[in-house]
Amino acid sequence: MKVVLPVLGLLAIIGAWWLATIVFGIEPFLVPSPADVVGEFLEVPGYLLEQALITLWEAVSGFGLAIVIGVPLALLIVGSTVLERMFYPLLVALNAVPKVAIAPIVVVWFGFGISSKVLMVVLVCIFPIVISTASGMKSTPGELVELFRSLDAARHHEFFKLRLPYALPQVFVGLKVSITLAVIGAVIGEFVGASAGLGFVISQSGGNANTSLAFAAMTLLAIMSVALFYGLSFAERKLLPYA
Amino acid sequence: MISLHGVSHTFGNVEALAGIDLEVGEHEFVAVIGRSGCGKSTLLRLIAGLLTPSEGQVLVAGDRVAKPRRDVSFMFQQPALLPWRSVLSNVLLPIEIFGFTRREYRDRAHELLDLVGLGGFEKRLPHELSGGMRQRVSLCRSLIQSPRVMLMDEPFSALDAITRTELSEELQRVQLELPRTVVFVTHSIDEAVLLADRIVVLSPRPGRIHKIVDVDLPRPRALGQVELDQVSRELRGLLAEVTA
């Protein structure tokens, strides 16, 4: 049942889409039918999968980097009120800047290669990770904190044996938000300047009105995002059975 | 084992405790009873070293208490278990924090869990246990370091009446087997009479010692025992006095 209903929903939407393209006689270069999209994919499957792998790699490595930077940053923010006051507003400001606006500058700084895309992904991912980790660590119940005090626990014990593990379910909330943003960040980077990746494919196909190719690339992006999201949910259930 | 000399404590400008003098002997079980807000918990936290008295001094085993000691354990109203740790790991938490080797204490942890009827549950996670079982784990955790003093802050008050009775009888059994110096805060007269050698009645705002009642009854005692009723009645009278 868990799988059947979403699949039914998906099939219903695809059916309606297909029907609409036939009934209204919509030109394929405006809205291609599902068959056109699949056909396009089958023409160049190797090429599209290769581009998808590039985008996937950008998204995943940027996401990983955002965790590696974001979690310690959250630890610092929770650990020191001075640091929190100094950097928290900056972080909020950074998040408030539309990432699309930063993308061209990032490309100017880091070039057309993969590093500018990874940086874009880090920029979009890091904020939810820092916020969820920090607020999770601050939400540790009073009696647990008092238990550690009553054991005269060192600060690092309170952090690593109590606050951080306690925050993990919340951290995962941030991670799940971030992982979908990661794919978006990679695509934005590729739009602005790239020679590979699904975002590049989409912006290219826009140029020569190959809408079917754009749809095929978008479908791959959607599958990628969904797979990443559910992969993370699965990891969460395995790692945190108590949450 | 524990001495309080002229201890007062104020939070901001609210006086929580005033002029408390109390001596608790080795292996003595003292219950502290009073209405909510009479400073019972504050008293316990002062002995634990979680709070520093505004006036007077607190001694444990002859030393002035400046911070929490390893030979004093604290048991809370909530089980305060770490949800990601198994029962066994939760019991061994103090050992880890103190930097001792877990291996050396594993047998003792098993013994303690057996003692409270949790043998076989070592690998379970807290969310798989009932409220009463969790509080038993918490009891084992506060016994693992073989504390000289156990401080208990209404440890059974979050439980249902039946489990509560069960656990207070169990605590009596544990205390007979592994005698410790205990200060037990409660607002249940029955619990106090069942468990304590002496019962301190606190009057509220600021908390002062209204009276200390001796319970000279042989152990093991049972709830509902006629001899206990007499003490209960006396306590009920005393508590009525301090509300006025």
UniProtKB/TrEMBL annotation, chain A:
Any one GO cellular component localisation term in the record:
plasma membrane
Give UniProt keywords alphabetically.
Cell membrane, Membrane, Transmembrane, Transmembrane helix, Transport
**Annotated ranges, domain ABC transmembrane type-1:** 52-232
Q: In its UniProt record, which GO terms are filed under biological process?
A: transmembrane transport
Q: Where in the cell is it found?
A: Cell membrane
Q: InterPro entries annotated for this entry? A: MetI-like, MetI-like_sf
Q: Which domain of life is it from?
A: Bacteria
Q: Any keyword Transmembrane helix? A: yes
The annotated topology with respect to the bilayer is: Multi-pass membrane protein
* Residue ranges crossing the lipid bilayer per the database entry: 7-31, 51-78, 90-112, 118-137, 171-192, 212-232
What family is reported?
Answer: Belongs to the binding-protein-dependent transport system permease family.
What protein is this chain from? ABC transporter permease
Q: In which organism is this protein found?
A: Lentzea alba
UniProtKB/TrEMBL annotation, chain B:
Q: In its keyword annotation, does this UniProt entry include Electron transport?
A: no
**Family matches, as CDD domains:** ABC_NrtD_SsuB_transporters
User: Transmembrane ranges?
Assistant: none
Under InterPro entries, the record lists: AAA+_ATPase, ABC_transporter-like_ATP-bd, ABC_transporter-like_CS, ABC_transporter_ATP-bind, P-loop_NTPase
Record SMART domains: AAA
What sequence ranges are listed for the domain ABC transporter?
A: 2-229
Question: What's one GO MF term for it?
Answer: ATP binding
Sorted alphabetically, the keyword list is:
ATP-binding, Nucleotide-binding, Transport
UniProt protein name: ABC transporter ATP-binding protein
Which source organism?
Answer: Lentzea alba
